[in-house]
């Protein structure tokens, strides 16, 4: 695979028993972007992130991250930061304990960055993580991911359990860190509203398959929602590629992809 992309997948799939959690995924993510990974629960978002982090091995196809295999050894793993779902921290350890642990586990650890972020967030180093609020735990987990100084940071629904204020503060500090550290980021969520102000590239997974991938501006220009009386999507004009269709007894809502002006005959 071409080593210039931050992440490339070709026919990538992961199977659990007889069930495909992700299948036939082919995509290219250029470096330097904040990529939103969206889709309903169970769509395959976490599976894709764990494959990218080297936590899982593919059942089919292949994946390249930063020009190498995700689990290609300590040097490769050091390039990738991962904040798992529910922003896991150790409840019995203090904030300072987490920073010391991070320093021992990561050869590229940036102690000054970690200390500065903890001070800026007004987190008491002596407080145990179990006594922190949900937003503070999320910020601590993000600090650990950033102080590793990865080239690619993977975030698996880090704000899903946070209240709106904590969610906004988390995303704001993430964007500040991206600007300061020149990171590439993949941020997953099942809520598009979490990503609309932070991401410039979008991946959409539905039913374990890649449906849409590209620059947000390009996708907005070429994807349209048609809502009206119930109809057969096959009757749409040529050149309108149906991405998804949902129907009630009387109404159809269809997402189409087209580079030409929308023609929507009755």
SSE diagram, text form:
Blueprint: E1 7-16, E2 19-29, E3 34-38, H1 45-53, E4 60-65, H2 74-77, E5 80-83, H3 95-105, H4 111-120, H5 134-147, E6 152-156, H6 164-181, E7 184-189, E8 201-206, E9 209-215, H7 216-222, E10 223-229, E11 241-247, E12 251-257
Parallel strand pairs: 3-7, 3-8, 5-6, 6-7
Antiparallel strand pairs: 1-2, 1-4, 8-9, 10-12, 11-12
Helix pairs in contact: 4-5, 5-6
Features:
Rossmann fold; 3-stranded antiparallel beta sheet; 6-stranded mixed beta sheet; alpha/beta; ABC_transporter-like_ATP-bd; P-loop_NTPase; 2 domains; 27% helix; ABC transporter ATP-binding protein; 266 residues; transport; 30% strand
Average pLDDT over all residues: 87
Q: Say how many strands there are.
A: 12
For the biggest β-sheet, the strand order reads: 5-6-7-3-8-9
Regarding quaternary structure, how should these chains be classified? Answer: single chain
* Strand and helix order: EEEHEHEHHHEHEEEHEEE
Q: Which class of the largest domain in CATH terms?
A: Alpha Beta
Q: Compute the gyration radius: what is it?
A: 20 Å
Q: How would you name the CATH homologous superfamily of the largest domain?
A: P-loop containing nucleotide triphosphate hydrolases
Provide the number of structural domains: 2
Distance between the termini: 46 Å
Q: Strand-residue fraction?
A: 25-35%
Quick description:
This protein is α/β, with parallel strands linked by helices and 266 residues long. The chain contains seven helices and twelve strands. It has two domains: 7-219, Rossmann fold, CATH 3.40.50; 223-257, no CATH class.
């Amino acid at each position: 695979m071409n080593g210039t992309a931050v992440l490339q997948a070709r026919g990538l799939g992961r199977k659990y028993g007889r069930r495909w959690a992700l299948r036939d995924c082919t995509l290219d993510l250029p470096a330097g972007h904040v990529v939103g990974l969206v889709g309903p629960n169970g769509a395959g978002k976490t599976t894709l992130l764990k494959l990218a982090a080297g936590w899982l091995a593919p059942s089919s196809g292949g994946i390249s991250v930063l020009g190498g295999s995700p689990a290609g050894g300590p040097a490769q793993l050091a390039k990738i930061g991962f904040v798992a779902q529910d922003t896991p921290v150790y409840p019995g350890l203090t904030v300072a304990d987490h920073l010391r642990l991070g320093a021992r586990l990561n050869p590229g650890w940036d102690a000054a960055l970690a200390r500065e972020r903890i001070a800026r967030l007004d987190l008491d180093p002596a407080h145990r993580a179990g006594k922190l609020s949900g937003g503070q735990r999320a910020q601590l987990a993000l600090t650990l991911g950033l102080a590793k100084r990865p080239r690619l940071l993977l975030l698996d629904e880090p704000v899903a359990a946070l209240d709106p204020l904590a969610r906004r503060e988390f995303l704001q500090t993430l964007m500040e860190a991206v600007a300061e550290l020149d990171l590439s980021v993949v941020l997953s969520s099942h809520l598009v509203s979490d990503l609309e102000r932070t991401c410039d590239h979008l991946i959409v997974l539905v039913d374990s398959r890649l449906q849409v991938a590209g620059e947000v501006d390009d996708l907005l220009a070429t994807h349209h929602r048609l809502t009206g009386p119930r109809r057969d999507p096959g009757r749409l004009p040529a050149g309108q590629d149906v991405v998804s269709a949902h129907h009630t007894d009387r109404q159809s809502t269809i997402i189409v992809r087209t580079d030409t002006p929308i023609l929507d005959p009755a």
